[in-house]
């Protein structure tokens, strides 16, 4: 309980909180983890971007995997941890929410779009790899189900979910905004991430290196545990709402 009270104290004093979220915040909404003990990558290997662009079989593999989880993503709803971050924003504490997640649940929960940086992209759209046009995913999934071939844009380009594949360049503008938020942060909180994927994990680390208190809440160890000012182990759906409620009651 003492460490929880320390986090509340940090939040009370902070004005520019940087929140960094990973898959662990969404497991309570039924979205599978990727790198945890039971993570998706234990049973399925990712398709790299250059493989997707070069090989139709790999493109089918990508779309097959995405189709497998499509209904789950559509039906998933924000959980208590997502909603606690909305409360944190309404209290005027949240400066920026940097997420590795592609599920769109921070948007659905109600955080402001201009405060959410989806640095690994989103499943809520598909993107043409030639012209860059973004569109809703449903028609592409319907086409793939019918043809079992990679859907194509009206320009003829290959369509891919608007997520960052392994080996694909990170969105430079979003990463710049994320690091700018880290520079001005007076508190960094990492939620539900193993903090093992770079360069995304460098964002909260930058804030800590600048002297901001660094809070990590996760089920299982992370690559940044030694950097944490406070490290809490447990379920985010239980811990985070309690922290925000205690802050509100201060």
- Largest beta sheet, briefly? 6 strands, parallel
Examine the secondary-structure arrangement and name the CATH architecture of the largest domain.
3-Layer(aba) Sandwich
Strand content: 15-25%
Order of helices and strands: HEHHHEHEEEHEHEHEEH
Overall number of strands? 9
CATH superfamily of the largest domain, please?
A: TPP-binding domain
Structural class: alpha/beta
Q: In angstroms, what is the radius of gyration?
A: 19 Å
The DSSP helix count reads 9
Q: Name the poorly predicted regions.
A: 36-41
Please give the order of strands in the largest beta sheet: 3-2-1-7-8-9
Précis, in short:
This protein has 250 residues and is an alpha/beta fold.
Brief descriptors of the model:
250 residues; alpha/beta; SIR2/SIRT2 'Small Domain'; 2 domains; 6-stranded parallel beta sheet; 3-stranded antiparallel beta sheet; 9 helices; 17% strand
Describe the secondary structure blueprint for this structure.
Elements: H1 2-13, E1 17-21, H2 49-54, H3 56-75, H4 80-90, E2 94-99, H5 105-109, E3 116-118, E4 121-128, E5 134-135, H6 138-147, E6 159-163, H7 172-184, E7 187-191, H8 202-209, E8 214-218, E9 230-233, H9 236-249
Parallel strand pairs: 1-2, 1-7, 2-3, 7-8, 8-9
Antiparallel strand pairs: 4-5, 4-6
């Amino acid at each position: 309980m003492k460490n929880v009270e320390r986090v509340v104290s940090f939040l009370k004093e902070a004005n520019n909180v940087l929140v960094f979220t990973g898959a662990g915040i969404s497991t309570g909404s039924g979205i599978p983890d990727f790198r945890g003990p039971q993570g998706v990558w234990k049973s399925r290997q990712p398709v790299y971007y250059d493989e997707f662009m070069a090989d139709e079989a790999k493109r089918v593999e990508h779309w097959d995997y995405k189709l497998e989880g499509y209904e789950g993503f559509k039906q998933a709803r924000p959980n208590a941890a997502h909603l606690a971050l909305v409360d944190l924003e309404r209290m005027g504490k949240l400066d920026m929410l940097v997420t590795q997640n592609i599920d769109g649940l921070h948007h659905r929960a109600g955080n402001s779009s201009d405060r959410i940086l989806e640095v690994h992209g989103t499943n809520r759209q598909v993107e043409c790899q030639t012209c860059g046009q973004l569109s809703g995913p449903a028609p592409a999934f319907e086409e793939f189900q019918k043809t079992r071939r990679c859907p194509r844009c009206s320009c003829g380009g290959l369509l891919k979910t608007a997520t960052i594949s392994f080996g694909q360049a990170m969105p430079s503008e979003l990463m710049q905004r994320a690091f700018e938020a880290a520079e001005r942060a007076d508190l960094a909180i990492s939620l539900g991430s193993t903090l093992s994927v770079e360069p995304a994990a460098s964002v909260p680390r930058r804030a800590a290196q600048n002297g901001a208190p660094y809070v990590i809440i996760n089920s299982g160890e992370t690559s940044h545990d030694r950097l944490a000012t406070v490290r809490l182990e447990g379920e985010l759906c239980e811990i985070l709402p309690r922290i925000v409620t205690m802050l509100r009651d201060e």
